Amino acid sequence: MRKFDLSRWFIPVFGGLAFVYLLVPIAYIFVFSFNDAGRTNLSWRGFTLSNWQNPCGAPQVCEAFVNSLQVGVIATVVATVLGTLLAFGLERYRFRFSGTANILVFLPLATPEVVLGASLLSQFLNLGVELGMTTTIISHIMFCMSFVVVTIRARIASLDPKLEEAAADLYASGPMTFWKVTFPLLVPGIVAAALLSFAMSFDDFIVANFNSGPFTTFPQFIYVAATRGIPAEANVIGSGMFLAAIALVLGAQLWRYWRGKRVSAVG
Amino acid sequence: MTNTVNAADTGGATGAGAPAGGADLRLESITKRFGDYLAVDDLDLRVPAGRFFALLGPSGCGKTTTLRMIAGLEHPTRGRILIGDEDVTATRAHQRNVNTVFQNYALFPHLSILENVAFGLRRRRVADAEARAREALALVELDHLSARRPAQLSGGQQQRVALARAVVNRPHVLLLDEPLGALDMKLRRQMQTELKTIQHEVGLTFIHVTHDQEEAMTMADTVAVMNAGRIEQIGPPEELYDLPRTAFVANFLGKSNLFTAQVSGSTGDWLELGFGPHLTRLPAARAVQSNGQVIAGIRPEKIVAVRPGEPGPGEHGWTKVSGGRVLSTSYTGVSTEYTVDVPGAGEFEVFSQNLRSEVFAEGAEVDLWWDERNVFGLPGDSDTEAGVEEV
Fold first, then answer.
1. Per the structure, how many domains does chain A have?
2. Residue B109 has pLDDT above 60, yes or no
3. Is the residue at A124 inside a domain?
């Protein structure tokens, strides 16, 4: 057939454009990580590998990066553990004010970040808590936890209660049922929630800006650096994280592919 | 038949069961309430070891609740549960040597078929768990799929895995909760036979919950018919069908013609009944009540319809009801189903095996004949509609 086929051309072309739109900024970051930049990294001055060879070359860039990593990991671990427990409590048990608790858990998601950051600041000041890494972590745990609760609750709600009954029927005690059946089935949800938490924590500028005091996170460093010129080392770190994320996704895909192949080969 | 408990006995006193031998299952005065709702009402039951026992009843009759109490997934409000001589009433599900085949199988989606089957063995730290799981899979002819995940199996295969997962533990009692409900007709028939064979091979006590009377009758050697939280009648399928003791059993298990009659006298072992202008008799032993107004019953296939005035199939011991008129005829090939109006006595369902080619048309006049040994008598206050079309 020689007639114009919409689905044949339109969808690949449009889809391709959408990807270009999404990925061009990231490509810019990646390309400019090889820029032989002087004080600012806004215009192309020539190719160099020196930024990649010494990503901590610019003052404070790695310090801020490590700060953000620390905050992200600690906030993620604490928010994921607490959020999972909270999700269980809210999903599995009916108690007085459980309806109210449900709404309150959603509240941090609905509140504008500036308001959240400002009110946390006034709270810390009133309590006389010195601003720094601790206050940043506390703030991050707070908003990450809401996301964790929402994600994992959905997962718990979709669990077939008969599976836990079947485990009990097959001689598994309460804790055994949790570790052998409930938890493994929740792992995908928990991993998703943890990745989301880490991304949100690492990404956060507004709340940290209110509550970090002299402590500087990576987004704060970039923001401040933007006024006098972002060092190319920041691009190196950004690109590195992007590549790490891609590697993670590819690794997971490969593992699933390999497992699927193994299963069908044996079966 | 130690397990042949009549409906009148089922509400009886605690500990009425016969002395236990082997790993019998006994329920003593079990009651279960959910808030105000009475799900199971003072139930007594004894299942001897090695039986294929069916709990049959319409949805909401309390059969699944009873099963869950035996499994330990629910706890009775009152009463005792004994397996062998051990009182397990207070124990939890994982402490009981009872396993369940769940309605939708409830296979663990994150585990391989082999690990699903080995789950119970591993929890009890059985040494050769894997080898025994493989044996169980071989029993249901699925050993070649042991590395797959449940989602990669068809419904019928999943059903067998669920059975293997329960059987492998050699429980004292194996519970089946509507295990064939999700399968299509053909597969269901096949699994009925297979389940029966496997039960023979492993020799375990099977308790099968179902709302399908045909399934219960073909598979079980003892059937308990449940209604509204109570057991109506227990017995072998043939006995329940031949001699129902309540209107519910008469209607739920197959079909019955139930009609109001007056006991007008008795001769020897027979009760004489009058209904409308007609007379019939039944053996006194087949009547729950022997005087006053009773509900008499006769199965549709036990009635023979002939042309008016033609000789019936027998002389002595046969009842002839004349003056019937065919209201509807339904030809099914192997048989013809008639609804016949008998003035003064009501409508009768008649199933006639197509031995001869003659089929009565609607409006035809017929005489009805039945062998009086097939009539059964129920209490006069029975609800003749109980159990009708509730399947």
1. 2
2. yes
3. yes
Which string of DSSP letters, residue by residue, matches B222-273? EEEEEETTEEEEEE-HHHHHHS-SSHHHHHHSS--EEEEEEEEEEETTEEEE
Query: In this predicted structure, what is the pLDDT of residue A175?
Result: 94
CB contact under 8 Å between B152 and A267, yes or no, is yes
Q: Is B148–A171 a contact, with Cβ atoms under 8 angstroms apart?
A: no
Residue B275 sits in the same domain as residue B301? yes
Cβ-defined contact of A165 to B93 (cutoff 8 Å): yes
* Chain A residues touching residue B182 (CB < 8 angstroms): none
Considering only CB atoms, which chain A residues are within 8 Å of B107?
Answer: 166
Cβ neighbors of B390 (< 8 A, separation 6 or more) are B58, B252
Q: What is the pTM of this model?
A: 0.80
Q: Is A173 exposed, middle or buried (0-12, 13-18, 19+ CB in 10 A)?
A: middle
Q: Looking at the complex, does the CB of residue B73 fall below 8 Å from at least one CB of chain A?
A: yes
Q: What is the average pLDDT across B265-272?
A: 92
Looking at the domain assignment, is residue A265 inside a domain?
Answer: no
Question: For residue A265, is pLDDT > 60?
Answer: no
- Asked if the structure places residue A208 within a domain, the reply is yes
Look over chain A and give the mean of its residue pLDDT values, rounded to a whole number: 89
In chain B, how many domains are there? 2
Which pLDDT score is estimated for B16?
A: 31
Q: Smallest CA–CA separation between A163 and chain B, in Å?
A: 5
Q: Tell me the DSSP string of B314-330.
A: -STTEEEEEEEEEEEEE
Q: CA-nearest residue of chain A to B174?
A: A169
Distances in whole angstroms, Cα of residue B326 to Cα of each of B254, B296, B322, B334, B342 = 21, 21, 12, 19, 9
Question: What's the average model confidence in pLDDT over A105-126?
Answer: 92
CB contact under 8 A, B93 and A166: no
Min CA distance, A164 vs chain B (Å)? 9
Q: Kindly state whether residue B1 falls inside one of the protein's structural domains.
A: no
Confidence of residue A4 (pLDDT cuts 50, 70, 90): low
> Which of A165, A171, A182, A185 is the best mutation test for B, with the most CBs of B within 10 A?
A171
Query: Does A124 lie in the same domain as A205?
Result: yes
Whether the predicted pLDDT of A243 surpasses 50: yes
Residue A166 in contact with partner chain B when CB distance is under 8 A:
yes
- Among B213, B244, B275, which residue terminates a domain? B244
The answer to whether A41 and A229 are in contact (CB under 8 A) is: yes
B147 interaction partners in chain A (CB closer than 8 Å): 263, 266-267
pLDDT-derived band at B5, boundaries 50, 70, 90: very low
Interface contact flag, A184 B94, Cβ < 8 Å:
no
How big is chain B, counted in residues?
A: 391
Q: Are residues A100 and A148 in the same domain?
A: yes
Question: B335 is in which domain, residue-wise?
Answer: 255-379
